[in-house]
Amino acid sequence: MTLVKKELNLFFIALGFLTRIPIPASVDFEQSKLNHASRYFPLVGWGIGLICGFVYWFFSLHFPVTIAILLSMLVSVLITGCFHEDGLADTCDGLGGGWSAQQKLSIMKDSRIGTYGSISIWFVLTFKFVLLSHLDNVLLALVVAHPISRSVATSLIYFLPYVSEDAKAKVKPLAETTSKNDWLISLFIGLAALFLVLHVFVSLVVTLLLSYFVIRFVLLKQIKGFTGDTLGATQQLIELIVYFVLIAG
What we know:
With 249 residues, this protein is mostly helical. It has helices at residues 3-18, 34-37, 41-60, 65-80, 83-97, 101-108, 115-133, 138-159, 180-191, 201-222, 228-248. The chain has one domain. It starts with a helix and ends with a helix.
């Protein structure tokens, strides 16, 4: 397999993992390759951001801005299959409802949604709608927030241990031999979006660094590492933080 085909194969693995977008049947999907495919998680974020941005732009030509924002949010969850929102709900249920680290992890694996999970979903979706409604350039915000948030979430894979005991966990291969190159590539692809918002470049970088270390500290203290659910939760939180900074800027 040539280098180009190999990298394209990894991209399609990342696309199939993070979204419901169909991928070619010829893709050589092996669980062992998922960890290397993480380098393209932010690139998938670019695609999601562009699609959501296009949906917003198109419908804003014919409907009020609020309707266009809601439709872009709807497309976002349809594309990802609520993958990240589900992780957010499970994380909040686990961290909020458990006492020991083991109990928190057990709650995260429960397929039922609890009070903490329900409230977190409501707040995050509400904040997304309100924040986007107050932005002058919604399309730019969507294109910037999606790759950056996935880049920050991917960084947790490299710097934190994987702690779920579920042998069948979908994200478990990410914990195995994730290389420094994978992390650096994902970081470069995701943070390249910063150059689209140079007016808040410094404030956004500082805020992202602080947010990353806070999230890392909380996860180490609460469950001693990361799970697939916490990656989804991180993506959702960082996406909101990007919107906050853009409004403040």
